[in-house]
Specification:
Layout (H helix, E strand, L loop, with lengths): L4 E5 L6 H9 L3 E5 L13 E3 L6 H11 L3 E3 L4 H14 L6 H8 L1 H10 L7 E4 L5 H7 L7 E5 L9 E3 L5 H10 L6 E5 L9 E8 L2 E12 L8 E6 L5 H18 L3 E10 L5 E7 L7 H9 L3 H9 L14 E7 L5 E8 L7 E6 L6 E2 L10 E7 L2 H9 L1 H4 E5 L1
Parallel strand pairs: 1-2, 1-4, 2-3
Antiparallel strand pairs: 5-8, 6-7, 6-8, 9-10, 9-12, 10-11, 11-14, 12-13, 14-18, 15-17, 15-19, 16-18
Helix pairs in contact: 1-10, 2-3, 3-4, 4-5
């Protein structure tokens, strides 16, 4: 019997684990990535130097290799090309139209509004818009407003404005991270629950089989919109949790999502209404699948691989005791990496360290998820201890530069 093949789109440090798991499951792994220094090429059975967003290139590779499935693990840009090629070849996939809606913020906002989900006012525009035209466009908006690209994730290119004084700067910042050169302005949502709710869900046969919501940590010393970790338990009460779960299932059903891990970003307003910031059609970044796997006694990386191959992952949840949180290592300054300094207080609770840098490597100031230096996985006994550590991480763990 011929060995089945899986095409993986992306071979970054965070994606290598999916290649490894596919090989452990006995699949022949084919990797596509345009970055010449990607670490995945040294793990995969076969490597093609091609862009994961080039649909025709991905299609040619998939055809040439006669693959049985395609996985865009933890990659927003590659999710749509994967769905398009899978649909062409009759491979397991979610509907292309739904993946497209989830990947572009303006169609996403339109879908939410048309289907009765809580949604702020939102209008798409181009970076070339004049100040006078922008003022006319938002004349009925309530400030603050949010400006961001329509096709990015991880809070890249996002600005919150109390007035229009820094409009030009905000547009330039959003444009920098935009591939399709379409931006969006939205009304800011006043929160009832203090944290952005992040994490992942896992779907099989159209039903959510894992609700992995967590609270997002933000760094007030730098770009406060950028996630620097997740914590579980989330802190939601029973009513808030039910609202989140019910609206997520309604959304998954309306979009016809059949399977796979999806990344969530949600706000609850003062009436506990669920506002969807994002539902990314892929596993979350910053190693969320590993964190949720630890917390629930499962293997979500394995489940992603199996689902992409049309195999039922048969997830059986065993919620583990205690509290799990992650911390994204980062620097607010450019420099050269030296090491990480840990306080004796937190060191016993760090059960996994993933460090992307070695001594002497260049470090860039943290203004987006791509500038992360690594991730710490931490397990404590009580929520009180977790919250205390989360509030003091910048003193408990320090990045040292040369």
């Amino acid at each position: 019997m011929a060995q089945k093949k899986l095409l993986l789109l992306g071979g970054s440090s965070q994606q290598v684990v999916a290649i490894q798991r596919a090989k452990e499951l006995g699949y022949y792994t084919v990797l596509c990535d345009y970055l010449l220094d990607n670490p995945g090429q040294y793990v995969a059975d076969k490597y093609y130097n091609a862009s994961t967003t080039d649909v025709e290139a991905v299609y040619d590779i998939a055809q040439k290799e006669h693959v049985d499935g395609i996985l865009a693990y933890a990659s927003d840009p590659a999710a749509l090309p994967a769905a398009i090629v899978c649909e062409r070849l009759g491979l397991p996939t979610n509907p292309v139209k739904s993946v497209e809606i989830l990947g572009l913020k303006y169609p996403w906002r339109q879908f939410l509004k048309e289907n009765g989900f809580a949604c702020p006012k939102a209008i798409a525009f181009t970076p070339q818009i004049t100040l006078s035209d922008f003022e006319k466009m938002v004349k009925d908006f309530t400030f603050p407003i949010v400006i961001k690209p329509t096709d990015s994730s991880g809070s890249k290119g996002v600005s919150v404005l109390e007035n229009l004084d820094d409009l030009s700067k905000a547009i330039q910042w959003a444009d920098f991270y935009s591939r399709n050169k379409t931006l969006i302005v939205e009304e800011f949502i006043s929160r009832g629950f203090p944290y952005v709710i992040g994490g992942d869900i896992f779907v099989w046969n159209g039903k959510i089989v894992l609700n992995g919501e967590m609270s997002c940590l933000r760094d007030d010393n730098g770009k406060s919109l950028i996630p620097i970790g997740k914590k579980k338990p989330s802190g939601l009460n029973d009513i808030q949790r039910k609202n989140v779960h019910d609206e997520l299932q309604r959304l998954v059903s309306m979009l016809g999502i059949l399977f796979g891990e999806l990344n969530i970003e949600i706000l609850l307003d003062k009436e506990n209404k669920v506002h969807f910031l994002e539902l990314g059609p892929r596993a979350g970044g910053n190693m969320i699948p590993l964190q949720l796997s630890d917390a629930w006694g499962i293997d979500l990386v394995k489940a992603n691989v199996q689902a992409a191959m049309g195999v039922d992952p048969r997830l059986v949840l065993h919620e583990q005791p205690g509290c799990y949180f992650t911390y994204v290592l980062h620097s607010h300054l450019d420099g050269l990496f030296k090491d990480i300094e840990y306080s004796d207080e937190i060191l016993p609770y760090i059960y996994r360290k993933v460090i992307y840098k070695k001594e002497g490597d260049a470090v860039k100031a943290f203004d987006g998820a791509g500038k992360a230096l690594g991730i710490l996985f931490i397990h404590v006994d009580t929520e009180e201890q977790m919250n205390d550590f989360c509030n003091r991480m910048d003193t408990l763990v320090r990045v040292k530069l040369k």
